[in-house]
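[Meeting: bench + compute handoff]

Bench side (C.D.) handed over the final construct sequence. Compute side (W.E.) agreed to return the predicted structure before the next meeting so the bench team could plan truncations. Sequence as handed over:
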Amino acid sequence: MTTFDLADPVLRTYAIAAAVMVLKVMGQGWMTVARMMKSGRGLVNPEDLIAGPLNRTPDAGQLDIDDYVDRSRRMHRNDLENIPAFWMAGLLFVLSAPALWLAQVLLYGFVAARAAHFVAYLTKQRHEVRAAFYTIGSLIVIYMALHVLWDVLT
C-alpha cells in the first residue's frame, strides 16, 4: 500500500474499527457526565462546588467518590490506556499490507474484545472476566506491533 485509499478493504476495515473506538472513547466520557448529572455526585474539583445553573445547591459530599459515576470514569480511563495503542498499532499494521482476513480478525477482534470488556465492567463482573477480554485485546495489539516489526526488520 502506497497511499491511503478507502477503496482498499484492509484500510476500510481499519477505518471502521478505529472510528468505532473513537465513538467508544467519546461515548464513555458522555456516559460519565450523564451519570454525574443523574446522581448529582462524583464531582472531582473544588471549583465544581460553585453554584451554577446545573448545580444550584452544591454540597461538599458531591466531591465524595460515588461508585455509580466513578465506575464510568474508571472505564473511560481504561479505554484511554488501551485504545490509543490500538489506533497506532492498527494503522502501522495496515501499512504492512496484511491479508484482508487477518486484518478483519484482528481489528474487529479488538473492537469485540473492548465491547465485551465494557459489558463486563458495566455489569460488575469479577476481575477475571474483565481481564480475559482485556487480555484478548492486548494480545491483538501486541501481535500487530510485532507483525509490523517483523515486516520492517526482515
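W.E. noted at the follow-up: The longest helix spans residues 9-39. C.D. will use this when planning the next construct.
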